[in-house]
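Backbone geometry:
***
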Amino acid sequence: MNRLLRIIPAFSCFAATAVMLAGGCAKKERDARFDPSSPSYQSPELTFAGVPDSIITIDTVSFSWEGNRNDAEFSWSVNGGDWSEWSGATGLAGLFDDGTATVDVRTRYEHGVDIVTGSVTFTVNALPDTALYLFPRQVTPNSDTVQLYLRIKGLDAYDVVETAFSGARLVKAETVSGSNRVQVLAEDSSVAVFATAPADLADEDGAVALLSFVIPSGRDTVTIGLERCGVAAVGGTVEDIGMAFRRGSVVVR
């Protein structure tokens, strides 16, 4: 069931000095709404709607928020990251990786200094017990090159993992485990990971390789998919796991 959160401050955290111009009623009214000492001032309020449950089994999350006045503007941040620019946007929709996520949202009146912040926290549990996937699920790069981790979940007894990618050109692949018993080979946008001991294959997050892709130009959104997946048990031959579970990443410019 969706939760509804409402945040109303009991007092103002900041104070602004109003500039009053004689003979301008509209100007006086505008100044008063930004002046916490004015009797007509009301602090910003933040209301969330469509908030996800505390634990969800899908990785697509969306919810909305609103303020108490038409001139309210908002900014948001995910997991302590950079704040977005102030705007009138009243919602967030995106792809989230497994784990606990916190979305912080702040609101103010247009150009105001009195800021109210609220947050929504939820846990994504979308991956099955066995999976081969790219991390993070959604990324915004600063250039035409993006780096993603190839991660493994629930595959412990193997010594070869092979996969191919689509949507972007793979230009580099390197191991992240730090073990000299792991070798990553990349050729024609495909990767093969070899390990002589399964315990040395992945790091604590399940990552086996750090991959660098060049994103095609002229596209706002690019999906990097895993087109082929194969694993081999120790001493065995590579077996195609097909669509057992493989998950790509979405690149949003």
Remarks:
- The longest strand covers residues 221-232.
- The longest helix spans residues 25-34.
- Residues 149 and 210 are 5 Å apart (CA to CA).
- The two ends are 33 Å apart (CA to CA).
